[in-house]
């Protein structure tokens, strides 16, 4: 009979717990035994003793000196107390709690007035594999230098003005948001972001609260990994009566170009369009400008096909096309959508555009450019592409507008927009993502009215 497996290592990827964001430990068993093949028992405990800094007496504490179970509220206090640490070893003072007066002098803790600490008391709070800290756990996110930033992690913004404009009109709201896939949210890509704020276990609760707070009738999400959708987003959003449907660009590519292997290989980029209204995530690579345009054109062709199939015309049903188009204002994809036709700026070097019309008949207009949600917007201006927001993607290597909500202006009108994120909040943590904003993109939300 084989001996039961033993735990060789236990760790938490998030070294700084945050209220409302789950903690899931990584468990490594001896001899490489997979953890999922064993029955594991979990116990989570919360201290019910209010811990104060052993140096200055302040709370909360963020550091512990393991040799004597003393706690400190800052790196500075830990450093100040550390000068007496060698004396502690020399005098053999290993008892827990605040030092006696004799011990304080031996350790260099002279002139401080301390209160005796009590033995730490703990209460069990959970027996499942994942624990979500609550406000009762008194945990807060900290900046890299240890300064407290509070527990707020999302920004709730209102529509411009005091009331929504469609209170007595038939309409809907639509949100588009690139939530930043876990495979891209790495320390190498975002070295300025606190390490504890990058894991999906932290960001997913942050993002979920943000999505629910917007209360959009339709959500268009991009960079949603399949396992994250199936295991988290779909069941969580289903609680609020949301459902989704996927259509892959690869399916279209295989249908249209199955006989040309070179063209097919160039077009297979694993980008996805969701057709609730019409939601897309266009390929991001700058060297594939023709693929960006190809995908945008086929998105519009698919919209036109569905309109014709359902109503016999492309002009009877309102359309919204939203998403991360990975294209700047004035680029070929943006021009095609906004103007209805385009001449490719760099031609067609790979021949993937030769059979495309590079035009459409839908009267599309950008919601953000039409109404404007930034200081330079002007409703009278006809140069709509210059009225897009200054950015929807903000990192240290790139700042620009890549996300849009296009709509058919003959059937819909814009009644309100979500205000753009304040620059100061974006720059507070250098760039996006950050502990406050869990994606490198900003969300866009528009309220639409049906024209009668």
TrEMBL record:
Record-linked Pfam families: Exo_endo_phos
InterPro entries associated with the record: CCR4/nocturin_mRNA_transcr, Endo/exonu/phosph_ase_sf, Endo/exonuclease/phosphatase
GO molecular function: 3'-5'-RNA exonuclease activity
Domain Endonuclease/exonuclease/phosphatase: 175-441
Name by which UniProt lists this protein: Endonuclease/exonuclease/phosphatase domain-containing protein
């Amino acid at each position: 009979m084989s001996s039961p497996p033993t735990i060789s290592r236990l760790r938490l990827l998030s070294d700084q717990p945050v209220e409302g964001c789950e903690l899931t430990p990584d468990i490594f068993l001896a001899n490489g035994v997979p953890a999922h093949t064993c029955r594991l028992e979990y116990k989570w405990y919360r201290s019910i003793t209010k811990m104060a800094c052993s140096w200055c007496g302040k709370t909360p504490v963020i550091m512990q000196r393991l040799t004597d179970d003393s706690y400190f509220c800052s790196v500075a206090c830990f450093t100040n107390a550390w000068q007496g640490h060698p004396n502690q070893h020399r005098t053999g003072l290993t008892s827990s709690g605040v030092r006696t007066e004799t011990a304080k002098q031996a350790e260099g803790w002279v002139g401080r007035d301390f209160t005796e600490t009590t033995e730490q008391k703990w209460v069990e709070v959970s027996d499942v594999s994942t624990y979500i800290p609550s406000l009762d756990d008194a945990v807060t996110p900290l900046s890299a230098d240890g300064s407290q930033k509070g527990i707020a992690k999302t920004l709730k913004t209102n529509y411009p003005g005091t009331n929504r404009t469609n209170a007595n009109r038939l309409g809907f709201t639509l949100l588009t948001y690139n939530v930043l896939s876990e495979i891209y949210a790495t320390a190498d890509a975002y070295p300025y972001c606190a390490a504890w704020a990058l894991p999906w276990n932290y960001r997913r609760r942050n993002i979920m609260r943000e999505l629910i707070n917007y209360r959009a009738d339709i959500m268009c999400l991009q960079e949603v990994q399949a396992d994250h959708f199936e295991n988290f987003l779909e069941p969580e959003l289903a609680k609020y009566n949301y459902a989704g449907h996927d259509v892959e660009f690869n399916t279209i590519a295989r249908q249209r170009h199955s006989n040309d292997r070179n063209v097919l290989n160039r077009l297979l980029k694993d980008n996805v369009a969701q057709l609730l209204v019409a939601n897309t995530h266009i390929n991001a690579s700058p060297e594939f400008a023709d693929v960006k345009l190809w995908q945008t054109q086929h998105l519009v062709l698919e919209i036109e096909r569905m309109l014709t199939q359902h109503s016999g015309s492309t002009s009877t049903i309102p359309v919204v096309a939203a998403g991360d188009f990975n294209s700047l204002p004035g680029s070929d994809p943006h021009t095609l959508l906004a103007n209805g036709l385009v001449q490719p700026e760099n031609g067609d070097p790979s021949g993937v555009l030769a059979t495309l019309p590079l035009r459409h008949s839908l009267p599309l207009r950008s919601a953000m450019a039409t109404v404007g949600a930034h200081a330079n917007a002007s409703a009278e201006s006809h140069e709509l592409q210059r009225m897009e927001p200054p950015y929807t993607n903000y990192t240290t290597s790139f700042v620009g507008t890549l996300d849009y909500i296009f709509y058919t202006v003959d059937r819909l009108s814009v009644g309100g927009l979500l205000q753009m994120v304040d620059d100061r909040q974006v720059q507070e943590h250098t760039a996006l993502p950050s502990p406050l904003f869990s994606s490198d993109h900003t969300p866009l939300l528009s309220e639409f009215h049906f024209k009668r």
